[in-house]
Amino acid sequence: MSLILSSLYIHPVKGCRGTSPVRALAQARGFVDDRRWMIVDGGGRFVSQRSHPALALVGVATGPEALVLDAPGRPLLSIPLAGNGGPQRAAAARDVTIWGDTVAAVDAGDFAAAWLGDVLGADVRLVHMPDATHRAVDPRYGAPGDEVSFADGYPYLVATTASLADLNARLVRPVPMDRFRPNLVIDGGAPFAEDGWRRLRIGEVTFRLVKPCVRCKVTTVDQATGLLDGPEPLRTLAGFHTWQGGAAFGMNAIAEGEGVVRAGDAVEVLSG
After folding, report:
1. Which of 167, 182, 58, 78 shows the shortest CA–CA distance to 120?
2. pLDDT digit string (tens) for 125-160?
3. Cα angle: 91, vertex 97, 100; to 5 degrees
4. At a CB cut-off of 8 Å and minimum separation 6, what does 37 contact?
5. Which sign, positive or negative, has the C-alpha torsion 231, 191, 195, 28?
6. Residue 185 near residue 161, CB atoms below 8 Å
């Protein structure tokens, strides 16, 4: 059965709502603009939907001149951008922590912090990863030089509609693909065939699929309401599809080189 890239997603601010462009430029650390921004607490540690599910309601738009955030009942937040997509008027650089990594970031300033603090009811800051910051992927699954933005661990997440359909057939209430926040969604093939894929060609880019993605309670957040939605789909997934003891859905991936991918591109399995 032929495979097609049905859609692609970019999440400019980690944890916030994503966008679905028809084309995107793939680079080493992820799609351009993907998870180059992150929200941190007062100690500089990353904040996500795990602790603040309302982040799902924060919409993000990117452009050459500004990053714009919106949230229900709030005025738009517009952050003027300078070089490499970072804030134009920023506070001093600061170290931030995501999982076990501590990296240098650029703070977006007090106004952005106050806006997000009002939305989340917490003491938070918005930071940007500049081009000069390099965060390596887990060396157990990557090669020297492989890097990632503020995504959890890898630059890309590949998911398939066949696997989602298989999961939904086991659920009382089906869930949409946005529960899993992928970058590349593929139509065609058998459910969970991606577990055995090792290299894919999509558009101008070859991707290495390096490990299954073990899922967390973010999958239980309704992305339309920003509310926890009970134990599903995590509970059902944990009952039939796991990796190293954790519920797994999708494959973490790394791009080999740079290029454009487009919705509708043919997907070729180069090795599996």
Report:
1. 58
2. 999 999 999 999 999 999 999 999 999 999 999 999
3. 160
4. 12, 13, 14, 60, 67, 108, 126, 127, 128, 129, 150
5. negative
6. yes
How far is 202 from 4, CA to CA, in rounded Å?
9
Q: Which two tokens stand for residue 256?
A: 């080999």
For residues 105 and 210, what is the distance between their CA atoms, to the nearest angstrom? 27
Q: Is 119 helix (H, G, I), strand (E, B) or coil?
A: helix
6 dihedral zone (left: phi>0; alpha: psi -120 to 50; beta): alpha
Domains identified in the chain and CATH numbers: 3-30+138-271 (2.40.33.20), 35-134 (no CATH)
Averaged pLDDT for residues 214-223: 97
Q: pTM of the entire structure?
A: 0.95
3-state secondary structure of 246: strand
Report how far apart the first and last C-alpha atoms of the chain are (Å, whole number).
Answer: 15
Strands 199-202 and 266-271, sheet pairing = antiparallel
Q: Is residue 91 pLDDT above 70, yes or no?
A: no
pLDDT for 171-190, tens place per residue?
999 999 999 999 999 999 99
